[in-house]
Amino acid sequence: MLGEFELIRHYFAAAACARAGGEVVLGIGDDCALLQIPSGEQLAVSTDTLVAGVHFPDPCNPFLLGQRALAVAASDLAGMAATPIGFTLALSLPSGDPLWLAEFARGLDAMALDCSLRLIGGDTTRGPLSLTVTVFGRVPSGQALVRSGAQVGDLLCVGGVLGEAAGALPLVLRQAEADAHVAEHLLARYWSPQPQLALGEVLRGKATAALDISDGLLADCGHIAKASGVALQIERDRLPLSEPLRRFAGDAEALRCALAGGDDYLLAFTLPPAELAPLQAAGWPVQVIGRVMAGEGVQLIDAAGNEVPVSERGYNHFNA
Ligand code: ADP
Ligand code: MG
């Protein structure tokens, strides 16, 4: 069995994503990493913890876990329109199983290279399996997309098809089976979220508010509504639903997953109407699902404009 320092050196410091460069002046190996932020830019920081048995099934495929842990954290940089710099990894491990570590590090490295994030440090302890990833990004001063800027008259948009990761949960937990290609598609949406980093950067100076959808569309839109002091109206029939999920779980469940499922890691944002056409013409995945109005809260309406009651609004760890 490897000791703590050999383990860090072998699996993490030696990973391709751990090379210094760009804004990372000094990476793994000293008491702190050193980052050089270009003048006129601000540092964006976010932390996410994944606990075995709470955020992912235990045991699970360590390669996929490495990918997912980093993607979930990187998605917060997308939601802020920040350009990725690097991340730290605080790892609590029940044992130093070399096979597990090698696969975990490989998944982490693959997602880190996809997201242009450098591994700059971390902490390694023995304990129940849990992962904490802190991501660092940069954004021109004043141009981060915060939750509080939505304006009455803006469009409410999302960056793609909703609900697939939540809909994949019965497959993740092996409580259900599906056709091979449907299962593959849905499981990929759970295990390998694709943080919308490029979309976030393109929305700088255009969107008025943004976040990444992690707890479910209704719950997360509620955060924008509250922070901006506005109401958000969502048109049920404009929600981009998943064909594979509809086939697998049915229309009602696909809708429930899209509204309240969580784990999408797509962007939700508010956009002045004039910004829409150029973004769509340039090929960006921008789907209008509703609009910003005076008032408060999030309302779901049908095609006739009548309010649709919703019982379940999203995931909250401390709700009964
Ligand atoms: P210290 O005791 O000074 O906090 P550590 O002994 O915990 O430092 O870690 C030594 C170096 O290895 C530090 O640069 C730290 O950031 C890095 N490190 C520790 N664990 C990890 C990990 N899981 N992934 C990446 N870097 C790590
Ligand atoms: Mg330490």
Automatic annotation (TrEMBL):
Domain PurM-like C-terminal: 151-301
Keyword Mitochondrion attributed: no
Catalytic activity: thiamine phosphate + ATP = thiamine diphosphate + ADP
Coiled coil: none
UniProt: Mg(2+) 3 binding residues: 31, 76, 212
Residues where Mg(2+) 5 binds: 215
Domain PurM-like N-terminal: residue ranges: 29-139
CDD domains: ThiL
Binding-site positions, Mg(2+) 2: 48, 76
GO biological process annotation, one example: thiamine diphosphate biosynthetic process
HAMAP family: TMP_kinase
Protein name, as recorded: Thiamine-monophosphate kinase
Organism: Stutzerimonas stutzeri (strain A1501)
Gene, per the UniProt record: thiL
